[in-house]
Amino acid sequence: MYFANSPEDLLDPQQLLSMSGLEFMQGILNGTLPAPPISKVLTYHLHTVGTGAVTFRGAPEFNHTNPMGTVHGGWYGTLLDSCMACAVMTLVPQGSIYTTLEFKTNIIRPIPLGTQVDAIGTTQHSGRSTGVAIGEIRGVEDGRLYATGSTTCIIMKMT
User: Fold this and answer.
1) How many Cα atoms occupy the beta-carbon half-sphere of 155 within 13 Å?
2) Residue-wise pLDDT tens digits, 65-75
3) Is 85 within 8 Å of 120 (Cβ atoms)?
4) Strand, helix or coil for residue 37
5) CA-to-CA distance for 61 and 46, rounded, in angstroms?
6) In whole angstroms, what is the distance from residue 148 CA to residue 104 CA?
7) CA gap 30, 49 in Å, rounded
């Protein structure tokens, strides 16, 4: 897996629109397309891709803590937004793109620093103009539930 380090590393719009969302996500997973820069900064990576579902894997580090020393809620939220929206992306047709319209995060318990977690996104609905997905963050070793989320994405036909 390689990460985009500058805007030139990202796909131009025509390249992106020439493939389906599933092809795009598979390209990131297999390393033929760059992973988003934010995943490097927040120490998570794409782990699995399927039709209507993706998993990201990562572990929070000290740089992701708030002043109280616990993992910042933004880390949970960004990880959930990524897995849920990318699950929707796997169902976006060629010639279309998506973006998050809104998302919600429910933090169940703190993730200890260094604990490896999976963020699993599952699409519940994908239509012409909207996609809806749910997500959860679970410990890789113990399966504990750390957070849940839901999202609505807007799907836009560009061609």
Assistant:
1) 23
2) 999 999 999 99
3) no
4) helix
5) 18
6) 8
7) 10
